[in-house]
Design brief:
It is a single chain. The chain is an alpha/beta fold. It has twelve helices and 17 strands. It has two domains: about 100 residues, Urease, subunit C, domain 1; about 290 residues, Metal-dependent hydrolases (TIM Barrel). Helix content is about 25%, strand content about 20%. The strands form two sheets. Strands 1, 2, 3, 4, 5, 6, 15, 16 and 17 form a nine-stranded mixed beta sheet that branches.
Length: about 425
């Protein structure tokens, strides 16, 4: 159920008087705010100043000179955060020239691969995710191989460069624990063994770097660049995001985390519900979806749509990602809110579902100090919805990223306009 809470008012002590005209100030009035980090605020005003939230509450005064946006009867939430996607690095999956999410790597190990170096800020899927799905922040992750490489977080600003859209990098190292990840192998045991060897070699490399440089050390399982990149995982700077569906694979990932003292996050996690107590005890988050319960392979025979609800009931930190068909990591990332709605239909609380597509993914990716919830001092990333964002008929009426209203004509808008009247005149 939704949190009702008390009507509260909070303001930031800023000297706005007399300088409002020199600043970019937007005041959104009359809506119901769902901050995620606190109770909802009805008939509220939220003030955005130079891309930052500077005031929020039911009794906030509108600064002189501010541009007003009437949100009466509307719902206001943080901009949604898609924890794992290939937005900006895959344009058309069937066209090789547009796929930049995977590095070849040596023996399926590409730990030094930086996916953000290939990010295309002009990708047509970016405004669609933002304007149709209310998504303002995305984790962009590499894919394929035993170690796919390093992921990053981007903010979906309109008309910006890749550099200015980059929020944080790196945020995670991505790995896969199934037979396909072990080069030339058909055994999960080999994949697990090769991951252990890589972690041991990476630890040995950092302890004996001088001997490695002098060429007096045995041959290690990865290149110098990859061994260097793995230090981020061993030091706990970033988590190892392990793509695993089968319960036994997830338990192996838990074991790896304990053995090497590293932070682990499970992604996909079709059978995660069946090992929820172990995940909770190890404090390992899970990135998974709720749209699909049809196993795509023998690795996911235990898949069920109650996965998220059962994980939360066990105390596991969860972030919702797409698991439905049709490119939910790319051009259909916009369906993230429908995944959350499905999670509610299958037992997750409404509040938990909203948190799982806003603040929780921001926490997992290490950017919750700036995005993921609505509070004073955070980036002004928010969505004004026509109603409950989990309802199919609801639309995001306005989407603000860093305080800017980002509405443009997307490819979908162009197609709608073109085919609204038939026959089409060329």
């Amino acid at each position: 159920m939704r949190t009702t809470g008390r009507i509260v008012a909070t303001t930031l002590a800023l000297a706005l008087t007399g300088v409002a005209q020199a600043q970019d100030i937007v005041a959104i009035t009359g809506g119901t705010i769902y901050p995620v980090s606190g109770p909802r605020i009805e008939n509220a005003t939220i003030v955005l100043t130079n891309g930052v939230i500077t005031a929020m509450g039911a009794s906030v005064a509108v600064p002189a000179g501010a541009r007003r946006v009437d949100a009466t009867g509307k719902w206001i939430t943080p901009g949604l955060v898609a924890a794992s996607s290939t937005l900006g690095v895959v344009e058309v999956g069937a066209v090789a020239d547009t796929r930049d999410s995977r590095a070849r790597g040596k023996d399926n190990i590409a730990a030094s691969f930086r996916v953000w170096d290939a990010f295309n800020p002009q990708a047509v899927s970016l405004p669609v995710a933002r304007q149709d799905g209310g998504i303002t922040t995305v984790g962009v992750m590499p894919s394929g191989g035993l170690i796919a490489g390093l992921g990053a977080v981007f903010e979906l600003r309109e008309g910006a460069s890749a550099e200015s859209m980059l929020r944080k990098a790196p945020v995670a190292m991505v790995a896969t624990l199934d037979a396909s990840s072990a080069a030339g192998s058909a055994s999960r045991a080999e994949a697990l063994g090769r991951l252990r060897t890589l972690l041991r070699d990476s630890r040995e490399f950092t302890l004996a770097r001088a001997r490695y440089d002098a060429g007096s050390m045995r041959e290690l399982s990865a290149s110098r660049a990859d061994l260097d990149a793995m230090q981020l995982v061993l030091k706990g700077t970033i988590p190892l995001v392990v793509a695993a569906d089968r319960a036994s694979e997830i338990l192996n990932a838990i074991s790896i985390g304990k053995e090497f003292g590293i932070r682990v996050v499970i992604s996909s996690g079709a059978e995660a519900w069946s090992v929820a107590p172990q995940l909770a005890a190890a404090r390992i988050p899970v990135l998974t979806g709720a749209m699909n319960n049809i196993p795509e392979s023998f690795n996911a025979l235990g898949q069920r749509q109650e996965n998220l609800a059962l994980l939360r009931a066990a105390g596991v930190q969860v972030a919702i990602v797409g698991n439905g068909a049709g490119g939910e990591d790319n051009f259909n990332v916009r369906n993230l809110r429908y995944e959350a709605g499905n999670a509610v239909a299958y037992g997750m609380s409404w509040d938990d579902a909203l948190r799982a597509i806003t603040l929780t993914p921001a926490e997992i990716l290490g950017v919750s100090d700036r995005v993921g919830s609505l509070s004073i001092g955070k980036s002004a990333n928010l969505v004004i919805w026509s109603g409950d964002p989990f309802e199919y008929a609801t639309i995001p009426e306005r989407v603000f990223v860093a305080g800017k209203d980002t509405r443009i004509m997307t490819r979908q808008d162009q197609l709608t306009a073109r085919y609204r009247t038939l026959p089409v005149k060329y």
